[in-house]
Amino acid sequence: xxxxxxxxxxxxxxxxxxxxxxxxxxxxxxxxxxxxxxxxxxxxxxxxxxxxxxxxxxxxxxxxxxxxxxxxxxxxxxxxxxxxxxxxxxxxxxxxxxxxxxxxxxxxxxxxxxxxxxxxxxxxxxxxxxxxxxxxxxxxxxxxxxxxxxxxxxxxxxxxxxxxxxxxxxxxxxxxxxxxxxxxxxxxxxxxxxxxxxxxxxxxxxxxxxxxxxxxxxxxxxxxxxxxxxxxxxxxxxxxxxxxxxxxxxxxxxxxxxxxxxxxxxxxxxxxxxxxxxxxxx
Length: 282
Ligand SMILES: [Zn+2]
What we know:
Layout: H1 8-12, H2 30-36, E1 41-48, E2 53-58, E3 63-68, E4 75-81, E5 84-88, H3 91-98, E6 107-109, E7 117-124, E8 137-140, H4 148-154, H5 164-176, H6 180-183, E9 191-199, E10 206-209, E11 218-223, E12 227-233, E13 253-259
Antiparallel strand pairs: 1-13, 2-12, 3-11, 3-13, 4-5, 4-9, 4-12, 6-7, 7-11, 8-9, 9-10
């Protein structure tokens, strides 16, 4: 342990400031989305089997829901710009802007150089959960995704093939007609849908606990751009114990895609590409 300086207590007592105050962030027109979601027409369902993943497409201006259907289950979500797969969800910056977990009114942002909203959360039946006594909350952008590489390190060399990373790799591979090994380059840090997580106060470690999700719960998004999504039903099930084995009870998840009524979003404008000129000072 290093030696505490004489003014150590005073340095620790300095009040924190928010890194990214979001008051000046372009805000979604939630009243418009709220009106539009009153008359949605479901036209597609994609079932994601336990310990597996599936891809789905959502046109710009449409809505999609991820729904718990048979039992408590968490999902790992990747999003791509369907027309340019180099634009994808940026978990780290979304965390910087909205905090460790996202809910209604918050957005999934894309990577540089676009850094624009890909999807906006328009409804979350677990919004009531808030932040619990352990500092835990739902739908995190902390965890990266369970993966066979970390599992291999932590288990002295074991191989497990149904971690979310591998599930997403297989799903993206079959969607794009490439191999899972090629597809894993596209797989990125996820939104942990329905997962209940936080950081321990004493050690700062990432923790998980049994998800409060129950069949019927859903999180709903508005597609700000044309989206290709990939969703894995995590081998951890509700993530109450472990997440890289066949031990946990696992259930399917359902993705539902909805069209808004004609004219419902007439005043809506798609998000612009980021305005930075990209000269980087040169
Ligand atoms: Zn997982």
